[in-house]
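Can you make up a polypeptide sequence alongside its tokenized fold?
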Amino acid sequence: MVIMPMTLRLEAADDSGVEEYRVYEDSVEVRRLRCGEEQDDLELAREQVSDEWRRLSHEDLTAHVKKNTVVAQWLKHRLGWRRLLRACTDPQTLQEFGIPDNSLDRYAA
């Protein structure tokens, strides 16, 4: 059995910050951790703790999938392609087809 990481951490090439992604309660969330060279370690730790997770919209997820980003590839392995496709779908469209937006595909990875 392969162990998949619970979070994905991406560091910017120019040291401008770190983005961290996670799957939490059937949604994908992201937070930005800022790294500043002028800050000491204690101040940086305090700043990182205060950064809040925000939920990615279906448009954000669709953009990642269209561009085949590292985030999209990680989510495909983490969620499975069916759940990822469903997460990219507008909740109103799901409702129009009678699909509850909080139900899981039990056959996904």
